[in-house]
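Deliverable D5.2: sample structural annotation.
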Amino acid sequence: MFYYVLKYVLLGPLLRLLFRPRIEGLEHIPDEGAAIVAGNHLSFSDHFLMPAILARRITFLAKAEYFTGPGLKGRLTAAFFRSAGQIPVDRSGREAGRAAIREGLGVLSRGELLGIYPEGTRSHDGRLYKGKVGVAVMALRAGVPVVPCAMVGTFEIQPPGQVLPRIKRVTVRFGEPLDFSRYAGMENEKAVVRAVTDEIMYAILRLSGQEYVDRYAAEVKAEEQERQRVRRLPGRGGGGAPRQG
């Protein structure tokens, strides 16, 4: 119930008024039946803009940190995501990945729309990164189509670290559904799930026009954070005392 109050009364009308989203390819979302909507992830705003423009309810696999934050802000955020029907996903470890797949398959078994960001995390620099194979495993096991989606402009309105979004028009673009029935029963073949994932990411890339990086976003982000940490060390240009020769 609260999902529809948010969508039609509280949040949805406000988002459509402020950001005036251009919507392209909405006809590619099936009117009924299970399907995966796989998109790029540029901003915290993505969680709200896509559901606001879809006629059907969509359930996202959301990172567990949204449900475990400290203090009043953390409790409010967790309550919001639970009320909106989002599913917490622990992103650490192999078992966590299997748990996310089980949760996603549960949504699809009910004939619903499942939203997923194959990159696994928000892009920290606006580029599109290599997709994780969970989206392919779910598509093949459930035998459902995958609708690629590109959020365009959301990085500019709310890049990582910015609390309040800028008021600027964005575009939500959906592509033709991808049918992977030719790979039915092959979800345990590593080469197959990698090929399916890459096909999904290429479809997203065509829609978004982003620069593509054939590496996982979390790895690149961790490397950049480490470089920043080293630069802040004393004697490495981070503002500390210079080394004595």
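Annotation notes: The chain is about 40% helix and 15% strand. The first helix runs from residue 2 to 10.
The annotation will be released with the project's public dataset once the embargo ends.
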